[in-house]
Amino acid sequence: MNPASLDSYIALSAILFVIGFAGVLLRKNTLVIYMCLELMLLASTLALVAFSRFHGTLDGAVFVFFILTIAAAEVAVGLAIIVALFRRRHTVQVEELNALKH
């Protein structure tokens, strides 16, 4: 069985990042935007692990450990903010969240 090359991992990472970026730009729902941001973060961790494996070191895995730890905290805070906005405004649509205009 042929192991996947570094190019295929980087290509997959780039595709996932572009899908996440397009989702952030095109979607109007804050939950979907948040999931797309997480997809972009995971695409970058995939690239770090691929480079780490290609070079035969554990540096990328260490970075991924810290990134995933920060992402877990980010999920807790981000979802709390989204829930608070939903309770206040009764919507999660981006164009209706204009709290700074009042």
Explain what this protein looks like in three dimensions:
The protein has three helices and no strands. It is mostly helical and 102 residues long. The chain has a single domain, classed as Helix Hairpins (Orthogonal Bundle), CATH 1.10.287.3510. Helix 1 runs antiparallel to helix 2 and helix 2 packs antiparallel against helix 3. The protein is elongated, with a radius of gyration of 17 Å. It starts with 5 loop residues before the first helix and ends in a 13-residue tail after the last helix. The model has no long low-confidence stretch (mean pLDDT 87).
How many domains?
A: 1
Main β-sheet description: none
Distance between the termini: 61 Å
Radius of gyration over C-alpha positions, nearest whole angstrom: 17 Å
Principal-axis shape:
elongated
Strand percentage lies at under 5%
Class derived from helix and strand content: mainly alpha
CATH architecture: Orthogonal Bundle
What are the main properties of this structure?
mainly alpha, elongated, 102 residues, Helix Hairpins
List the helices and strands and how they pair.
Elements: H1 6-26, H2 30-55, H3 59-89
Helix pairs in contact: 1-2, 2-3
